[in-house]
Design a protein that fits this description.
Elements: H1 3-25, H2 28-36, H3 38-46, H4 60-79, H5 96-99
Helix pairs in contact: 1-3, 1-4
Length: 106
């Protein structure tokens, strides 16, 4: 996880904590209305970790998860480059072409 990804994860957690604190601060007679509107909108925009039936098509946690997957893919590609034609020995046993039967080759 990069520093920026870690920071986004912390922000997600901070928002969850602050929303819990906010809902506890307001008078009890306003909690239901808050949960029906602004609290629900914010919580659903942050992640799927909430008490509501609905959700967001793409919330903050989805963004972080997608970003981390992209980084993993980029790291894999960077650490496992495809060989160029000059580096490829078609006769080498690790090469799929060398393992093909003669009748299967073009």
């Amino acid at each position: 996880m990069t520093e920026d990804q870690q920071r986004l994860s912390e922000i997600i957690n901070d928002i969850n904590d602050l929303m819990g604190e906010a809902i506890e601060l307001i008078p009890e007679n306003m909690v239901e209305r808050a949960k029906s509107y602004w609290y629900a909108h914010i919580m659903c925009a942050v992640s799927d970790d909430h008490e509501f039936l609905g959700g967001s098509m793409h919330h903050m946690q989805d963004c972080l998860d997608e970003w981390m997957e992209q980084e993993e893919e980029d790291d894999y590609i960077a650490n496992n480059p495809l060989p160029n034609d000059e580096d490829t020995d078609l006769r080498h046993e690790d090469n799929f072409y060398a393992l093909m039967r003669d009748e299967d080759r073009d």
